[in-house]
Amino acid sequence: MADRTNGEITIDADAAKIMDVIADLPAYPKWSDGVASVDILEMTPDGRPDRAEFHFASGPINDTYVLKYSWHGITSVDWKLESGDVIKAQEGTYTLTDNGDGSVKVTYDLMVELSVPMIGMIRQKAEKLIIKSALQGLKARVDSL
């Protein structure tokens, strides 16, 4: 399994609001670069996405893949790839930590493996760009609501 890459950002909002934005998968195309659309395949009993199909198109990577989610209240969510063509493995986590001052530290941890060969250094750089873009997009989305 490939190494994981992570990043963090502080958002001036409560954890519940941030987690609601993270859980609104169909809205990802509005704030997450490369995500063209998301279809919810199954929901958890508490109304959060359990499985979702993503349609991704960014640069040379175009893929449709399915992620399986595990929700842990408003403190974290993790996901794992169930199927994909170009993306052969993906694991990720958003972890929310209350800073005690009305802000929350959001940590995004990600590992992606593609079916096409990629030098580890290039893969890690791509993961860092994905994480940076996702965290900035998440903050902008939360701030806009």
Report helical residue fraction: 25-40%
Structural class: alpha+beta
CATH H-level superfamily title: START domain
- Look up the CATH topology: Alpha-D-Glucose-1,6-Bisphosphate, Chain A, domain 4
Order of helices and strands: EHHEEEEEEH
What CATH first level would be assigned?
A: Alpha Beta
In total, how many domains does the architecture comprise? 1
Mean pLDDT: 90
User: pLDDT under 50 segments (min length 5)?
Assistant: none
- The rough form would be described as globular
Give the N-to-C terminal Cα separation. 37 Å
Q: What is the count of DSSP helices, taking H or I runs of 4+ residues?
A: 3
Q: Which CATH architecture would you pick?
A: 2-Layer Sandwich
Sheet with most strands: strand arrangement: 1-7-6-5-4-3-2
Strand content: over 45%
Could you describe the largest sheet, including whether it forms a barrel? 7 strands, antiparallel
Specify Rg, calculated over alpha carbons.
15 Å
Q: Count the beta strands.
A: 7
